[in-house]
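Quick one, tokens below. Sequence please?
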């Protein structure tokens, strides 16, 4: 992803290292938070930064490269020599700088290191560290957050297997009040900016005068362990921007789960074992409006109950039901219809929808969905399944057109 530069505007290259190997969290850089892979979240944050002129993802993994390109970044394939567990971020950035210059003929004035393992980094954070270098005269800059805690470290004692707790930023015998202590600042690990020539000469990210750019402590989270990823997913509905619902410009097809998404997840069974479900008329109107607008609609269900097929016939949409692996069926349907999965909205409510959530660009959970599903969604309806959730989704995509 590149933007035109002008003679009075420095060229700012954002580099996002994202190798395929991860021991702590396998497949970490493709893990979704708020329904968006971590590497794509970083690319989108760079895309929103006004001072960034080009964004490059450095990777050795084809799947990461595909997601990065779909999100709008350029990709530099990292050689194996700097893609192992001991490879440094600095090595990846230096390689990406050289590769990008060879591809574009443009030499960066400022280079950024943006970490996709910080899922809640913002475009303002990225612009902040950039401005500290391009406008305020710093050689390097990075994001920090105010920190008020007392830090302790264990040290060995003379006795066998004994340790002693030692204060690092305080004296054990003196515990000053927070307002009487110097303000400590925690390095967030999210964004770093460096003068490109100085970075090449020094080989590390903290040369010269370093500016500290404060960010919101509530957004500071680095994903190093599986528990970090679960926390990030739980926090995404609170910390991601409120305007996360898609429009018709974002979506080329709509795929809908059935039970719990188009129904209220209850089943009525008569004495002969016949099953019946309750649907919402508003959902039918919404699906009809999507069809009129030219958006392909598919119903995808694991259920073999004939009521699913009957509902699809009434709505005049295709249906795939009795499907064990919904994600494989959806992938095949996309291929047969020439639709890119990242341009698909999939609406679901339970854990058997997670495979499809990982495949599409717009995973949507209906209100009342399983907590794990809500955490994996990119958007959540305010209306429950069987009570007009699909009508709500159609409203996102069609807006005023839905009433015509």
């Amino acid at each position: 992803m590149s933007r035109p530069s002008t003679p009075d505007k420095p060229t700012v290259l954002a580099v996002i290292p994202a190798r395929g190997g991860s021991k702590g969290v396998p497949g970490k850089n493709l893990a979704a938070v708020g329904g968006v892979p971590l590497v794509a979240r970083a690319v989108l944050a760079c895309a929103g930064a006004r001072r960034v002129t080009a964004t490059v993802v450095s990777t050795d993994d084809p799947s990461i490269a595909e997601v990065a390109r779909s999100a709008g970044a350029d990709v530099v394939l990292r050689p194996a020599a700097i893609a192992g567990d001991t490879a440094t971020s600095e090595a990846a950035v230096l390689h990406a700088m050289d590769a990008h210059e060879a591809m574009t003929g443009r030499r960066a004035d400022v280079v950024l290191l943006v970490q996709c393992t910080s899922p809640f980094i913002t475009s303002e954070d990225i612009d902040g560290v950039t401005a500290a270098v391009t406008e305020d005269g710093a050689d390097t800059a990075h994001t920090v957050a105010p920190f008020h805690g007392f830090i302790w470290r264990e040290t060995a004692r003379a006795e066998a297997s004994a340790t002693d707790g030692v204060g690092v930023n305080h004296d054990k015998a003196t515990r000053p009040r927070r307002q009487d202590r110097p303000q400590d600042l925690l390095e967030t690990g999210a964004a770093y900016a460096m003068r490109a020539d100085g970075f090449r000469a020094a080989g590390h990210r903290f040369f010269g005068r370093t500016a500290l750019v404060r960010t919101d402590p509530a957004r500071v989270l680095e994903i190093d362990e599986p528990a970090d990823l679960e926390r990030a997913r739980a926090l995404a509905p609170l910390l991601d921007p409120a305007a996360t619902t898609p429009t018709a410009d974002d979506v080329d097809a709509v795929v809908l789960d059935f039970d719990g998404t188009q129904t209220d997840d209850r089943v009525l069974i008569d004495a002969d074992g016949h099953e019946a479900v309750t649907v919402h008329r508003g959902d039918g109107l919404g699906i009809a409006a999507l069809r009129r607008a030219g958006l392909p609609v598919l119903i995808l269900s694991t259920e073999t109950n004939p009521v699913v097929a009957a509902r699809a016939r009434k709505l005049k949409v295709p249906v795939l039901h009795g499907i064990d692996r919904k994600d494989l069926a959806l992938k095949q349907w996309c291929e047969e219809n020439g639709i890119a999965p990242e341009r698909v909205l999939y609406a679901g409510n339970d854990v058997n929808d997670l495979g499809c959530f990982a495949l599409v660009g717009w995973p949507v959970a209906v209100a009342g969905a399983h907590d794990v599903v809500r955490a994996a969604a990119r958007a959540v309806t305010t209306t429950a399944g069987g009570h007009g959730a699909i009508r709500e989704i159609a409203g996102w995509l069609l807006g005023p057109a839905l009433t015509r």
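The mean pLDDT is 89. The chain has twelve helices and 19 strands.
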